[in-house]
Amino acid sequence: MKVTVLLFASVAEAAGTRQIEVEAPANARVAEVRDQVLEAYPALERFAPNLMYAVNEEYAGLDTPVEAGSRVAFIPPVSGGGGLCFV
To answer: How many domains does the chain have?
Structure first.
């Protein structure tokens, strides 16, 4: 199943892109999507311990299920206020 991964701030800079398409297995969870992205973009490994995630614009944990067509966001810690916003 196809999943869109959105990258923000320093994670996007390190990957050289703000969006990645991933072919995830059926019944995948955020952790499996993360692992696929880290395999394809090893420079992102350093961010993994501190990343937050969202699935379809709602904060999610590593065990959150991901469905076909979902948008999974990788959000590094940032200072300042504001809410979750996807463009």
So the answer is: 1
